[in-house]
Amino acid sequence: MDVSHLIDRLNPPQREAVSAPLQSRLVLAGAGSGKTRVLVHRIAWLIQVEQISPYAIMAVTFTNKAAKEMRSRIEALLGLTPRGMWVGTFHGLAHRLLRAHHREANLPENFQILDSDDQLRLVKRICRELNLDEKRWDPKELTWFINAQKDEGLRPQHLDSYGDSSWQTRIDVYKAYEEACQRGGMVDFGELLLRSHELWLNQPVLLRHYQQRFQALLVDEFQDTNKIQYAWLRMLAGERMPVMAVGDDDQSIYGWRGARIENIQNFTSDFPGTEIIRLEQNYRSTDTILQAANALIANNQGRMGKQLWTDSGEGEKIAVYSAFNEQEEARFIVEQAEKWADQGGMRQEVAILYRSNAQSRVLEEALVRAGVPYRIYGGQRFYDRLEIRNALAYLRLMQNRHDDAAMERVINVPTRGIGSKTLETVRDYARQQQVSLWQASVEAIERRLLSGRAAGALLPFIELINQLQRDSESLAMADTIALMLQHSGLVEHHEKDKDKGEARAENLQELVNAARQFEQSWSPDEEDEQAGLTDVLAAFIDQAALDAGDAQAAEFSDCVQLMTLHSAKGLEFPLVFMAGLEESLFPHSMSMEDPQGLEEERRLCYVGITRARQKLFMTWAESRRFYGQEERRTHSRFLREIPEQLLEEVRLGASIRRPLSFQRPTSPSFAEAEVPATEFYLGQRVIHGTFGEGILTNFEGQGPKARVEVNFDDVGSKWLILSMAKLQAL
DNA sequence: TTTTAGACCATTTTT
DNA sequence: TGGTCTAAAA
């Protein structure tokens, strides 16, 4: 078989990675160096050259998006769907293992996945049960604590308070939480990994089975693995399985949620015989952009070492813009973005990146004002919406009566007269008898522990769920869901929502559509069948928990893209704006104190810079409103870490006055600072006959129609026609 | 049960 | 400043 197409158009290190012998390899893949391409070609190589069955290949990613992309690119390259291959996220694959071996993992067959919202609710409930003061014991913090322990592979019994009572309380909550999960057959995200790791640990036969089955293991975004994920991989790999770990230590930006950059640094010693392959040729950005990125990241210690290069040419300089304030920064960005569009560029080629979500508001306002369509990434995802979560809770309850999280969520949604008092009685009973809320409800009614009214409200709910489940046996899943939505009153309930009612009803309809689609495309493979995975509804619920879907329905219009630097990882855009390059915003004040945190911020900056293909703007504001407080700002140290000759300042700080008659830049050059100054400039203090003193914060138009916005000390912000207002400079 | 007023507080986010 | 959450009032 001719396999030259697998390596033909690759550069030497890419080729080396793709055609490496069956041994472990660490591929240090710089930004834009063709990482996914290498992974996909490697898999094809394993199948076509090494004659490894797809059944013996496992490829692990972090996000569903990455897993889907890998799958479709493999299919495109091979021209067929490789059956039996395990491609998925860590969580997805761990989940698959637990489903297949639920008995050995000590889980009920219908165990359910607890997402972060359910988890928080459950922790809150446990805090109440343990009589903890929510002021002192923030459930969010406790949840974070539990997850952090699981990410480290630690169970409550592995933890020792060493007499520290507050530490002991945390451990107690963790323990109670774990018991509640076990009782209800619920598994959170961290548990998926921890439990499947323990499954292998406790069942050597099973482990050996998988070790023999898989002959090659590939891991994407290796720098993002946490301790348990790494342990999971090592255990599966054993002594012999060749692992190809692909990652970039310079793009490790998730340390704060447990990712361990050491994993990539220790890989070669933990997997003996591993060679390192560096992919340093970049196919994305101009040389200027890469030089800036290289120079910046060189300030970090203990790197694996990598220098990105390109033969694509020097390109334009990086434009640095010092805005007067955040409003003006936003306006500048919008203006430049529109210029791109005016010159024939697509809006979707433009990305505005920022460090924190709070920055998006001002940017949005500026975009709206200018009538520029935009799209924000990272909003609420489909399966995270209130109405969808409620609907799923009903489905989960139909599937598993002991799912307390689901029960708590919808027992009184829509309101059916089950108040807090009834619920408290049921909760108390459940706690005493160590049973689920469902069972407690049933027994409480039977034993007449509830008032007639309470029982009269609770019983119909129980019957509703029972009835729905009976009906579901003869109906297609989508029809079951539609029926549930009607009979439960959820549609009616959510329709009533004041401003979001319409959208909510639509989303519920969309859920039915999604279910129908899922149903049509879903077919368990032989392996799933053997594992008893034959229930569509269960599979649908699982996938909703593991993949929250997109934030917005597919957007066809040509939009400017707004997102945080974190969510920009893995993406690329011809034109990129990085906004808010100010000390204590970026690097963020929460991270700049300790050296580790600062280095991660720097990597985040590196990620941002390397998103840009052609042109990069870095902007900051000399003054920014923070929690209502106007603050003076200084530009980010990261700007200083980029060699000056790569930068081009559009305006130099406050020292250059920006006259009101300033002609907005229209020529291709962005350096247009030398315009004769007139009387007024942004940030100037002025005095008005009626309103008194204030600061000039904004302007629009020119000549006789020019208007200015002045923030007056006494009467606040006002727009004034410059030619009428008789302003005086102070 | 729903609405409203004050308190509180404030990176980054996927599974 | 504004969004979220809890507690009090309609």
UniProtKB/TrEMBL annotation:
Record: residues binding ATP: 29-36
Enzyme class: isomerase
Domain of life (superkingdom): Bacteria
GO terms classed as biological process: recombinational repair
Domain named UvrD-like helicase ATP-binding: residues: 8-286
Family: Belongs to the helicase family. UvrD subfamily.
Protein name, entry field: DNA 3'-5' helicase
GO molecular function: 3'-5' DNA helicase activity; ATP binding; ATP hydrolysis activity; DNA binding
Record's catalysed reaction(s): Couples ATP hydrolysis with the unwinding of duplex DNA by translocating in the 3'-5' direction; ATP + H2O = ADP + phosphate + H(+)
EC annotation from Swiss-Prot or TrEMBL: 5.6.2.4
Leader sequence segment: none
Annotated source species: Proteobacteria bacterium 228
Any one cellular-component term (Gene Ontology): DNA helicase complex
Keywords: ATP-binding, DNA damage, DNA repair, DNA-binding, Helicase, Hydrolase, Isomerase, Nucleotide-binding
UvrD-like helicase C-terminal domain span: 287-570
Upper lineage: Bacteria, Pseudomonadati, Pseudomonadota
